[in-house]
Design brief:
alpha/beta, 16 helices, 7-stranded parallel β-sheet, 3-stranded mixed β-sheet, about 45% helix
């Protein structure tokens, strides 16, 4: 009972447990002396002290879908959170629900701007303890329409973040993508698999190559500069706040189903995916950042329920009570000539499970219920 009471006080940000990251650097003894209650709690549960330290967290792309959920989770932990986002694919609507929350007043700072703004990034990186680099060009449609800008954002933007983190010796997590695996047909995909891409005149693969270059650069900083950097390969993260505008399939299907429009399935619909709930992904990202054994490593983060896109469309129609039909559209009509699809994408998660105990907690049916409810709310249905 005592542990439950103390945990609730910590989660609610009780001042008795307030402690800055800087004071924690004085050592475990000095940190515990900060609060008699904390001493009592750590006697009862001695491994908790590491994860309860309040940090200054910088999140690039913090107004994006995943970045906003990460920011909210860090705030609820008691962290001081700084985000930067140019709103090219993010939205202030993603952060408005907690931006004015009294619990977070004086701990949440928003910069609308670019990661290429050197002076701004210099200041934000310098005052932060850790950095989550989530900013990137995202979505198949955006990438095909903006190939040069997508390459610039992903490669040069990541290089800028790594350069500054190395300058200030700040631990950083780089968000990569399952796209880096390319055209593999086997499952599960594991971090040591070889990479197979299509030809360079298919701009579909420019995104995959740019994210792989981010990984190479990050690991080079680890090996040559000693930078504490972690690479997380994300597989189809979904949940509330995600938009279907850039090609994300579940919110697109949900919007079509709720407006009783045909659900447009590209190709024959037999391509398979797994989907991971965004809050599960956020827990994994935070766990990777907190672990001292994860720097210099690459980790898959993804779900385990493999489903064809055709079956996914049928599930969403049933879950939403829709009368929509399913319409198959050839890739040549849905996208530009540069498009090639990955026919199968299933992650192996043994490595991250071993490292931090991650397993997805939210099943696909629950994910679909929550996304459908979110779309209904947005559309006033």
């Amino acid at each position: 009972m005592m542990i439950l009471i103390l945990e609730k006080m910590i989660e609610e940000g009780n001042p008795a447990f307030s402690c800055s990251w800087e004071s924690a650097r004085l050592g475990k003894a000095g940190f515990l002396a900060h609060s008699r209650l904390f001493v009592l709690y750590t006697v009862l549960k001695p491994n908790f002290w590491l994860r309860s330290i309040h940090m200054k967290v910088l999140i690039t792309g913090g107004a994006g879908f995943i970045g906003s959920h990460l920011a909210e989770a860090c705030l609820k932990r008691g962290d001081e959170v700084y985000i930067i986002d140019d709103l090219s694919t993010g939205s202030e609507n993603n952060i408005n629900s907690f931006r004015e929350d009294e619990r977070f007043r004086g701990r949440f700072f928003v910069t609308i701007g670019s990661i290429f703004d050197h002076e701004t990034m210099l200041e934000l990186t310098g005052i932060s303890d850790v950095v989550f680099h989530m900013a990137a060009a995202v979505g198949v449609r955006y990438i095909l329409k903006n190939p040069l800008e997508s390459i610039r954002i992903n490669i040069q933007g990541t290089e800028k973040v790594l350069e500054l983190c190395a300058k200030f010796k700040k631990k950083v997590l780089i968000a990569s993508s399952s796209e880096v695996y390319g055209k593999h047909l086997h499952a599960p995909l594991v971090e040591t698999d070889n990479i197979i891409y299509g030809p360079s005149d298919k701009f579909r693969w420019s995104y995959a190559a740019s994210k792989l270059m981010d990984e190479f650069t990050a690991l080079a900083y680890f090996r040559t500069k000693g930078l504490k950097v972690i690479v997380a390969r994300l597989f189809n993260t979904v949940g509330p706040r995600q938009t279907g505008a850039y090609g994300m399939v579940i919110p697109r299907f949900a919007e079509q189903a709720l407006t009783h429009e045909p659900l447009t399935v590209y190709g024959d619909g037999n391509q398979t995916r797994t989907f991971t709930y965004v809050k599960d992904v956020v827990k994994a990202l935070i766990a990777l950042m907190e672990n001292e054994e994860t720097p210099g490593e690459v980790f898959n983060i993804g779900g385990t329920e493999e489903i064809t896109i055709l079956e996914l469309a049928q599930k969403i129609i049933r879950a939403s009570g829709s009368a929509s039909a399913i319409e198959r559209i050839p890739y040549s009509e849905a996208f530009e000539k540069d498009f090639e699809d990955m026919q199968r994408r299933v992650p192996g998660i043994e490595k991250i499970k071993t490292a931090v105990g991650f397993e997805p907690e939210t099943d696909l049916d629950t994910i679909l219920e929550r996304v459908i409810a979110d779309v209904k709310k947005k559309k006033g249905l």
